[in-house]
Amino acid sequence: MKQSLLVKLSRINKIYHTGEIALQALKDISLEVRKGEFVAIIGASGSGKSTLMNIIGLLDHPTSGKYELDGQDSSHLKEDTLAQIRNKKIGFVFQSFNLLPRTTAMDNVAIPLIYAGLSRSERMDRAKQALEQVGLDDKLASHPNQLSGGQQQRVAIARALVNNPGIILADEPTGNLDTKSGSEIMRIFERFHKLGKTIIMITHEDDIAKHAKRVIRMKDGQIWTS
Ligand SMILES: Nc1ncnc2c1ncn2[C@@H]1O[C@H](COP(=O)(O)OP(=O)(O)OP(=O)(O)O)[C@@H](O)[C@H]1O
Ligand SMILES: [Mg+2]
């Protein structure tokens, strides 16, 4: 059966203005991602990968074009609605982990649940479960600086998954990790892909991209299909 469309970008352009200079970071991008796909986006530095990801994640607006997420046109939504959709539907994973430093793994993971109206003990239960799923049940009370890079990224993945979002957006999730930690992260992503999650992942590395089922190549703000 054909899976339904989750992401539909139609003729998306993004122009950044810095002083007098205008830079077109995305040029007429059209792209469809179906529910349950595992997609990698690769391309040279500056080719527009993060710009594209930020638009897909509703963190930034396109200059022109239409973006529908889960059948909903996002162009006229207000910031608080966008924030709600992000919190409910999207889990973000970044190259630099973005964990709060003076906060335990469990409290870091529980942050997205604060907006879900759960009690503290429910939040802690859910955070613990999410950390167990990434193999960190022995590090619940550790602070980020007491964890290796790979472990910190697994905390960030647990945080991305704790609200049970349908889509995971990862911008170079293995960029700061050694090969072994990178493979562990890919095993976790593959497991979530098998559970039906949609994953869109940016990477520089062909070895990482090959874990995805579809590879999209970007060059100079455009998508190249070879
Ligand atoms: N906020 C911004 N203001 C102005 N120009 C920007 C901004 N963000 C990105 N750019 C420019 O847009 C282009 C695309 O940047 P983007 O960050 O999307 O590239 P990337 O493919 O993610 O690169 P990398 O692999 O280095 O992360 C680059 O030329 C960049 O300098
Ligand atoms: Mg980038």
UniProtKB/TrEMBL annotation:
One of its GO terms (cellular component) is membrane protein complex. GO terms for molecular function: ATP binding; ATP hydrolysis activity; transmembrane transporter activity. The keyword DNA-binding does not apply. Keywords: ATP-binding, Nucleotide-binding, Transport. SMART domains: AAA. Residues 7-226 form the ABC transporter domain. SUPFAM superfamilies: P-loop containing nucleoside triphosphate hydrolases (SSF52540). The keyword Ribonucleoprotein does not apply. Pfam families: ABC_tran. InterPro entries: AAA+_ATPase, ABC_transporter-like_ATP-bd, ABC_transporter-like_CS, ABC_transpr_LolD-like, MacB-like_ATP-bd, P-loop_NTPase. It comes from the Bacteria. This is Macrolide ABC transporter ATP-binding protein. The lineage of its organism: Bacteria, Candidatus Daviesiibacteriota.
